[in-house]
Amino acid sequence: MQPQEKGSHRCYGENVVLPLVSGISRAESKIENYYEIPGTASKHYLERQQIRESNARSYPRRISMAIREAKGIYIKDVDGHTYFDCLAGAGTLALGHNHPVVLDAIRDSLDANLPLHTLDLTTPVKDAFVEELFASLPAEFARNAKIQFCGPSGADAVEAAMKLVKTATGRRSILSFHGGYHGMTHGALSLTGNLEPKQAIAGLMPDVHFLPYPYHYRCPFGFGGEAGHQISSRYIESILNDPESGIVTPAGMILEVVQGEGGVIPAPDDWMREIRRITCECQIPLIVDEIQTGLGRTGKLYAFEHSGIIPDVLLLSKAIGGSLPLSVVLYHKKLDKWTPGAHAGTFRGNQLAMAAGGATLRYILENRLAEHSDIVGDRLLEHLRQIQNESCCMGEVRGRGLMIGVEIVNPLAEKDFRGNYPTYPQLASCIQAECLRRGLIIEIGGRFGSVVRFLPPLIVTPEQIDSISEIFQASVKAAEQQLLPILSQAS
Ligand SMILES: Cc1ncc(COP(=O)(O)O)c(C=O)c1O
Fold first, then answer.
1. Which NCBIfam families does this one have (predicted)?
2. What does the alpha-carbon distance between residue 453 and residue 429 come to, in Å, rounded to a whole number?
C-alpha cells in the first residue's frame, strides 16, 4: 500500500495525492458495530414518515433510518450509528456528502447575492459552468455541441431528449434496451425495462421497442461473452435493415454504457462501437444516458469514452449538480431543430447547482478522480472476488470503476441452460440488511432485486475500500448462515 500522508492519501498504485475529506469518521479497519436497525430514535421518525408520506416511498423500507448528519463517505443517523454510504444519493454524490469545495461554491454564490432562480436567462455562473462542461467533453463532441438545461431531474433530461430527436427526425419510435433504466416519468418509464413500476400505468408512450443488451451472465441467447454481444448487435442491425421487422426507422436509440438499476451490467466496448456504427449507418441518433455513469464513476470522465465512440446526444444529471438538482442534454447542433420555447420549464436555472456542479467537475479533473475510481474500483472487485471464492451464493462479481455489483444466486436450486444458478433476491435483501447492521449502506437492483450494488463516492480511499469489503464479507457469511439452512430443509 502507498504511504499515507497527513491530511491526504496517495491514490493506490498512482502518484496522485488526494486530500482526505475529514469530518465524521469511524473505526476503519475492523468490524466493531452491530446496530439494532432501526434504532429507537430513528423509529420515531420512520413511524411519522410512514403515516404521512406516500406508499411509493422506497429507500426507507430497506435503509431504515433517519439521517442526522453526513460528511464524505459517512452518514450518521439520529441514534448515533455511523455508516459507510455506498449508495451516495444513488450515485449523485461524486465527492461524498458536504465536500468543502461544494460547500464553498454554494457559500460564495450566496455571499455574492447571486439570483437563485433565473429561468433560462444567463449569468456569469451559468456561462462559466457551460464553458467548463464543454471543455470536459471530447473535442469532437464539444466542437458541435449545444446544451439544453432541463427541469432538474434525470427523467427530465430523458423526456427532453425524446422530444429533441423526434422533432429533429420527424420520426416517432424509440429503441431502448432490456434492463435499461431511464426514470419514472411517463415517457422515461416507457423506455425503462423493469415491468414492475409499469404494471399499474395504462397508456405509456407508444412506439418503444426493446432490444437485447449484452448481459454476459444471463445472456438471453445462451452464449454470453463475445458471441453473446455479437449476436445482440447483429440482431439489431438486422431488424433495422429488414423491411419486414415490424419496426419503422426510429427517432433515436437510448442506452446506458453501464446499466445501473438493471443490475450493474457494463456493455463491452466492441459492442458499443458496433452499435455506434449501426446507428450511424441507419442515421439513428444515439442517446447515451450518463445520468448515473457521468463524471468519473466508471473510470473515465464519461463512460462512452471507454469505447471511443461519440454519441449524438448525452444526458447528464446526478453528479453534474454537485449534490444539488441539475440536469442537461448535450447534443450535436444538427439536431437543434427546436423552435423557440419548444422545450421550456420553470426550474432550468439552478444557479447554486451550477456553481456546485462546476466546482465538482473541476475537483474531479484536478484530482484525477476518474483514474482513482478505476484503481479503487479494481481493489473492491478484487476483494469481492476473494469473498466470492468462499461463498456459494455470489454468482457474478462485475462492474467498472466505482459502479460494482454482485449477483446473488441460489446454489440449492437447479442451474439454468447456461449452467448458472437462478437469482436469490431474499438472500440479496438479507445481505443488505446485515451490511446495514454492521454500518454499511449498499443498494439492491437488477433482475428480481438480486444484485447488491456498490456506488461509493469517488473520494473513497483504499483503506475504506478494505473496511467496506470486510463488512461485506461478514454480512454475506451471516446472511448465508441464516437462509441456506432454511432452503436446504425446504428442498
Ligand atoms: C441511467 C439513469 N437514467 C435516468 C435516471 C432518472 O433520474 P431521476 O431519478 O433523477 O429522474 C436514473 C436514476 O437513477 C438513471 O440511473
1. dat, PRK06938.1
2. 11
Distance 51 CA to ligand 1 centre (A): 27
DSSP 121-182: ---HHHHHHHHHHHHHS-HHHHTTEEEEE-SSSHHHHHHHHHHHHHHHH----EEEETT---
Q: Which residue has the cell 448481459?
A: 215
Separation CA 419–CA 207 (nearest Å)? 35
Atom of ligand 1 nearest to the CA of 155: 11
- Taking the centre of ligand 1 as the mean of its atom positions, its distance from the CA of residue 75, in whole angstroms, is 22
Is the Cβ atom of 194 under 6 angstroms away from ligand 1? no
**What's the pLDDT at 20?**
36
Between the alpha carbon of residue 404 and those of residues 87, 91, 472, 478, the distances in Å are 11, 11, 13, 21
Written as nine digits, the cell of 309 is: 465512440
Rounded distance from Cα 277 to ligand 1 centre (Å): 26
Could you read off the pLDDT of 161-209 as tens digits, one per residue? 999 999 999 999 999 999 999 999 999 999 999 999 999 999 999 999 9
Q: Does domain 4-98+369-490 have CATH number 3.40.109.10?
A: no
Q: What are phi and psi for residue 288, nearest 5 degrees?
A: -100, 115
Dihedral sign of CA atoms 55, 57, 59, 65 in order: negative
Architecture of domain 114-366: 3-Layer(aba) Sandwich (3.40)
Residue 69 has pLDDT above 70, yes or no: yes
Q: Facing residues of 9 across strands?
A: 4, 18
What is the rounded distance in angstroms from the CA atom of residue 480 to the CA atom of residue 423? 14
pTM, to two decimals: 0.94
Ligand 1 contact, 35 CB (< 6 A): no
CB of 182 closer than 6 A to ligand 1?
yes
Tell which one of 87, 93, 292 to mutate to probe ligand 1, the residue whose CB is within 8 A of the most ligand atoms.
Answer: 292
How many of the other CB atoms lie within 10 Å of CB of 404?
A: 24
- pLDDT tens for 413-465 read 999 988 999 999 999 999 999 999 999 999 999 999 999 999 999 999 999 99
Contacts 24+ apart (CB under 8 A), 45-49: 45/78
